[in-house]
């Protein structure tokens, strides 16, 4: 089992920044792709960003490209989502995710482990 614990969510004004962290424990020897999804009430959970185990492949949803950056530090079993130029439409619960079966994490069906989520609220 892998446990994922997010931190860094909170309330921020539009245009501001937040840095989300995801700390992994358990079977951290596995080479999981990591990613972040977000979800708002009544909507499907959607991919925000993903990164391959070695960090060489990244993916960003079009809505966040150029504003968000995903990174990871495997030695610390932690990955990060730096969110800049935040917009009210970024408000959501953000979930860290780990996927063993793919190097290109894109959808919820790929995910093996989920964090509990951290709420990001962007005020206008």
Strand content bin: over 45%
Order of helices and strands: EEEEEEEEEEE
Structural class by sheet pairing and helices: mainly beta
Mean pLDDT over the residues: 95
Q: Catalogue the unreliable spans.
A: none
- Quick one: biggest sheet? 7 strands, mixed
Between the first and last Cα atoms, what is the distance in angstroms? 40 Å
Shape: globular
Based on DSSP secondary structure assignment, what is the total number of beta strands?
Answer: 11
Helix content: under 10%
Q: How large is the radius of gyration?
A: 13 Å
Number of helices: 0
Structural account:
The protein is mostly beta strands. The chain has no helices and 11 strands. The strands form 2 sheets. Strands 2, 4, 5, 6, 9, 10 and 11 form a 7-stranded mixed beta sheet that branches. The chain has a 4-stranded antiparallel beta sheet with strand order 1-3-8-7, with no helix packed on it. A hairpin with a 6-residue loop joins strand 5 (46-51) and strand 6. The N and C termini lie far apart (40 Å).
Name its key features:
124 residues; 11 strands
Question: What is the secondary structure topology, with strand pairs?
Answer:
Elements: E1 2-7, E2 10-13, E3 18-26, E4 33-39, E5 46-51, E6 58-60, E7 68-73, E8 78-83, E9 92-99, E10 113-114, E11 118-123
Parallel strand pairs: 2-11
Antiparallel strand pairs: 1-3, 3-8, 4-5, 4-9, 5-6, 7-8, 9-10, 9-11
């Amino acid at each position: 089992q892998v446990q994922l614990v997010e931190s860094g969510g909170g309330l921020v004004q539009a245009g501001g920044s937040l840095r989300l962290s995801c700390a992994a424990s358990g079977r951290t020897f596995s080479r999981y792709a990591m990613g972040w999804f977000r979800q708002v009430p009544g909507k499907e959970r959607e991919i925000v960003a993903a990164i391959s185990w070695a960090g060489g492949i990244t993916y960003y949803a079009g809505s966040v490209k150029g504003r968000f950056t995903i990174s990871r530090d495997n030695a610390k079993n932690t990955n990060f989502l730096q969110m800049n130029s935040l917009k009210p439409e970024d408000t959501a619960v953000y979930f860290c995710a780990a996927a063993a079966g793919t190097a290109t994490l894109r959808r919820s069906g790929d995910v093996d482990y989920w964090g509990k989520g951290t709420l990001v609220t962007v005020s206008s």
